[in-house]
Amino acid sequence: MSSPLSPVTLIRNVRVPYGGADHAVDIAVEGDTITAVPPADRSAASTATAPGSYDGRGLLALPGLVNAHAHIDKSWWGLPWQSYGGEGTTEGRIRHERARRDEIGMPSVEITRRVLDQFVAHGTTALRTHVDVDLGLGLRGIEVVREALAAYGGALTAQIVAFPQDGVLRRPGVLALLEQAAREGVDHIGGLDPATIDRDPVGQIDALVGLSAEHGVGIDIHLHDPAELGAFQIELVLDRVERLGLEGRVTIAHGFAVAQLADSRRRDLLARMGEAGVTMTTVAPLRLPQLPLHELDEHGVAFAFGTDGVRDLWSPYGTGDLLGIAWQYARASSLVHDDDLRRVVEIATGAGAPFAGLPANELRVGDRADIVLIDAENPMDSLVRTPPREAVIAGGRLLVG
Fold first, then answer.
1. Which domains, from first to last, does the chain contain?
2. Which positions carry the signal peptide feature in this UniProt record (predicted)?
């Protein structure tokens, strides 16, 4: 067995699902890139142990899981149990978190590393994480996250969203912090419920798209507001994307409104989102309608899954298993047919890679060597059982196995 972070140059005897059928292959890797995927060589000579060789033992190989909506800076993983407190509203959770985060040492490099370790153990090789930016923290959370990620030596791919959890406009100075974060290299700036948090949807959205246009960063905005109120804010975003030429730069996180609209209204909105390249992420909330898989695909609206917070002051739940979130989405959406289950796995893995700034991944020559090995019959079986991840390779380096 190779040591953690050791380079892998050949993964022998794995099954890769191409075109709905499994193919027994070897996967050759050079650096962080797949260079060849020949049929599996099961000859005696091929089974000899060599440096950089990993025996896949006939396991199912999938592209690494992509966690497109995480909050790795604000967990209490590894600390004594933290009882749920405060009020259950968005405002209540914000206040409770602000009151207690310093007491438990949030954000912390050590805790953030623990969360990342959980992600990796469950097969995540790339992520997009929202990191709190506010007047109390400044940009310290971003520094913490970067330091925690550095321990993976570039094997783990991550994009950072500077996230104004406490609002953008209602706290003077936050917008300046977002601009500073944009100048200092974050991938995206965030927003939060422009209508109900800042109570100024036009003002918040104009401020965010202005920074995006000036600094070339993306926008990833939390939008919890329901039905027509949420749709109205998405339309405000679309107006500005179209006017300023920001196609392909905006993600709507949560976007509960989309699943709550009347059918014709939802389809019209999705068609416009697809044309503008506006993407979505979901954490598959159990108590709300799910984003409609077939309609999103029909209108070209790319979407991906995220774990949201994991054991944080908003909720004690979360294991860091992105495949478990995909399972939750499929089950709550009543998806049962093979094509749909396979599609959900694609979204959770290679199709989600652009949400972390990577090309889509199908484990073909030229793709990044982000690979998870699972003891499963096929992708559908891996989704409905979510078995343990037997090996995790990120950027051509063995992280688990």
1. 6-64+362-400 (2.30.40.10), 65-356 (3.20.20.140)
2. none
